[in-house]
Request: fold
Amino acid sequence: MSDKQLKKLVFLESLFIGVLSIICALVFGLIFSKPFLLIVSRAFSINNLNMYFPIKSIIVTIIVFTLLFTISIPFVMITIKNKTIIELLNGSKKPKNEPKTSIFLSILTVVLLGIGYVVPFLNINSGNLTYVLVACIIFGTYFFFSQTLVWVLKKLKNNKNLYMNKTNLLWISNLVYKIKDNSRLLFLMTTLLSITLVSIATLSSLVSIQLDEQRAAYPFVINYQSADGNPQEKDRLELIEKTLTEDGFIYDKTSFNSLRVKDNGGYLVSQSEFNQVGQKLNLDNVSVTDDEVVIVPRYTDSSYMSSLNELKTLQIGKINLKAKGLASGKIFPAGYKTYIISDYLFKKLSNNPEYEKVTSFGYNFNGWEKSIEEGYNFNEHIKNTSKNNFEKGILKETYTDLRYYYKVSIDITNTMNFMGIFMSIVFFIGSCSFLYFRFYTDLIYDKEKYKNLSKLGLSYKELKKVLTIEISSMFYIPYLVAFFNATISIIIFSKIKGFSLGLKGLSTSCIILVIYSIYFVILKNKYIKEIAKIIPGYLD
Reply:
């Protein structure tokens, strides 16, 4: 066969595979899109996922994959350019050289993974070292498969008592070559599995974390603020209480006074008012003198809290006060600038026109998360019928409903969940397909090898044992490393974001492990059966 004929053969083969792959993908995608959207809408509570014909997506898919296959063809031709037909047909039949390893790189692996795995558990701000830790784990993982693991297996070979014991000779020697030959594949598998575990663990915990964060950010489920002289105050309160009663909620009502600082939008609360409301919300009491102020943090992230702790003085309007510290919690919704001052100073400023009197009404009740839609609709009603005029600076009332903001957050979270879990499934299938392809390409060689070994006395039981150890090593070593990598990544992520995913996030890895194990059992049994059926007497 001439070079021209060979190139033509490769081109036609790649073209046929590419076109067939694109057509099959589009056909099956369209067939299963409706049930897929139905499952997604119910699983993630996402509405309006209607069926449509995605012309733009089809065009983009055709263009991208056509470019992909077009680019891959020259690489294939370059690979086979300097090889003869006999070499291509023989493939992996040629004897392999003993894999070489470096003791330096093996030690470096331990150092890199040690840094990546240990530092996040130390009492230091590992968030500042994020990129360093990620780099250590990535390079450490690669060297683990290409150097350290092979080095360990070679040491097992040097232990004659272990190596020469029954079938150990077979699986140890096989793994030395398989691990070395597939080090990049195993590294890529580990990376994809790590991404899968981190994504699913993080996203599966977001809903519960979202609920806790929203509840902490809004001390009252409903918070209605009415400026002095608001004509709608009475009607609003009657409507709120009537609606809650009709919906079957038993509510606890709290009211307190505050002063709105007109020039910066902050709120002043007297010490006695804050402590009285704080008792209901399980907050610590505060105590201030006439020249002091306690700041109520608007948010909870560590950098913001640190900046508040560094304040020595604070100017509110035209008065300067000494910053005494931070309150243990808030009585206004998140985002409100709130300052606690002495009762005397509060009374003094009440007569100052620069400070507007505001009365706040808070409602708490159990089971609010079951009335998300009602809260959303009620919030929209208040917004549409309000007499506020922001252009003229008229702010007569503000209404904050935890249920409204929770619904918005949940909608965003569900969308993120869908996108993240969908991508995780793609990565998971990708990692599994790599192994399937690898074993499929090794099958012809292994058939011949084990057929010859059977003539030397290898039994079916011993064949199953050897292949089980080999396949399980190729399966579970990457998963184990990926689990450790994912755990460290989640710890780093939790420290940066200031919340803990806890065991609930990582528990999802057990679900992935079960699916992964089912795939392992199916592939292992199929692989063993394919080899055993060509050997006389094994399946009789």
In short: Residues 221-402 form one domain.
